[in-house]
Amino acid sequence: MASQTAPPPGVFVPVPTFFKSAANSSGALEPKVDIETQVAHTVFLAKAGITGLTILGSTGEAIHLSRKERADLVAGVRAGLNDAGFENYPIMAGVLTNSTEETLEWLEDYAAAGAQWGLVLAPGYFGKAVNQSNLIDWFTLVADRSPIPILIYNYPGVTNGLIAEPDTYRVLAKHPKIVGCKMSHGDVSYHVQVSNDPQIDHSAFRVYSGFGQQLGPIVLFGAAGVIDGLAAFYPKTVVRLMALANNTSFTEDALSEVRRLQFAVSRAEEFIGKTGIIGIREGIIRKTGLGALEGGRLPLKGRLPEENWTALHKLYLSDIEQIENTL
Fold first, then answer.
1. DSSP 8-state class, residue 84
2. Which of 279, 268, 264, 282 is nearest to 323 (CA)?
3. What is the mean pLDDT of the segment spanning 108-124?
4. Which of 16-30, 151-165, 260-274 has the lowest mean pLDDT?
5. pTM summary value
6. Cα–Cα distances in Å, from 238 out to 97, 180, 219, 241, 320?
7. Could you give the CA distance from residue 291 to residue 295 in angstroms, rounded to a whole number?
8. Domain boundaries of the chain, sorted by first residue
9. Which residues are annotated as catalytic?
């Protein structure tokens, strides 16, 4: 089995899925997916220097969409990128299910729709009852049959605390169709161990963090980048931090800028931590005008009260706002 191409290093954005307002959803049970706005936001990110997209991950609410909606969304974004001149723009598509057969069904749909990679969530319904050996076997079974290369998505917050250990990544990284991972947890040691493991071919297996507040430290120690929600509305700042952190030789001025940017990004990530997906959607609307404030599907429907946005923006986003406006 030939090795597959790993995603490029850099900043990927786990984009939220945009939904139309109730008034524009023609009496549907839930708001309809807004592919036009999804494409507009995608092009905005591409023009800002974002490396690629993660569509229909946790932030993208894949579990709230039907099979057809998921396939149509990926295909619509791919077509929109092509029309805007961004052909072959990197797209990972999220797979958030535990059944191996259903996981492969999602991957087959995504391959047909134009995604280059699948970001496959670790099967965590049973949490820590899943041992590392069975986790290896599960991902191997999926990768053997997947039509596109996959990345391991480890997000203990939505998988009942299941964590893939460094030795598990070492084994899975040898599979020619497993080309990376996204660690959405705060264990920097795991990021650094996997990013520097001498038994892993790091040109073929890339490590990304789901936390922008870890960007500087993990990239300095070999990680490929981040898949970070804050970059959905402050893309230029996160891209600039990535570029500086990825430079192996620092001048005193560059190091000072890295520290300043990492502080601003880490501070702004507190906003994401407190508001989640609703806060990301709110930030996008406030910064770009894209989306509907009342949009979203239950149970994540809604927006931030005005007084909450004002207070949180002043507390956490003022530094990054100033930086973004200068880039």
1. T
2. 264
3. 98
4. 16-30
5. 0.95
6. 30, 21, 12, 5, 9
7. 7
8. 10-235
9. 182
